[in-house]
Amino acid sequence: MRASIGSAQTPLARRRRLPGPPRDRVKARLLRLYLALARRFGPQAWWPGRTPYEIAAGAVLTQHTAWASAARAVAALRARRLLRAERVAATPAAALAGVIRAAGTPRLKARRLRALTRWLLDRFGGRLGAMRRLPLGRLRRELLGVPGLGPETADAILLYAAGRPVFVADAYARRVLARHRLLGRRATYEEARGFFEAHLPSDPALFNEFHALLVAVGKAHCRTVPRCEGCPLRFDLRGRRPAR
Ligand code: SF4
Questions:
Q1: pTM for the full model?
Q2: Where are the alpha helices (DSSP H) in 135-188?
């Protein structure tokens, strides 16, 4: 996989060069978790995509769908030269749905992709680079106003397509935090996002890699039934069982 935003090696190297001890215990603990994951799984090179628009389109296509299926839909868009905002906007929803059917719920996702595309064209002339200059809170509120974009999709676009420092606190991340008693198991998406952002340096490259690594450990170990044996984060449980 290939990422077009940032370098997957950068945040790990940067953490190792921190001049002194982290300022608070939660921050230190989160960074230890991050480093343990980075050592085990290596650079994740998220998010695959040749352009910011392709990454944003992929964020819509992977909603409630495994990335492998979304990637087939992205490839189908590429094969028809439809990974450009102007061309998607000019394509009727029914035709677009036919192209992206590999991603599942194609009519719904075609509507959502067109809604996002219209917003990008109206607001930024289709140039996602302009999203780097707006105040983040206002930008996020506007993005959440696009039909069909929930917080996780909006934040994936902000982080991976626009390089803004927003943590994607998806189910994998929340599960690890809860099992390690860093957050309650009923913590909401926004609570978990706020937790990461409050305790970590506001660094898009770090957020990018940490989120990808949490997905990696979630798939390999922290499943519905946790497989703590052999998990790189087991040291943090300090002999306790994961919280239920
Ligand atoms: S599998 Fe166990 S050790 Fe690994 S992240 Fe989940 S709760 Fe922690």
A1: 0.89
A2: 136-144, 151-156, 171-179
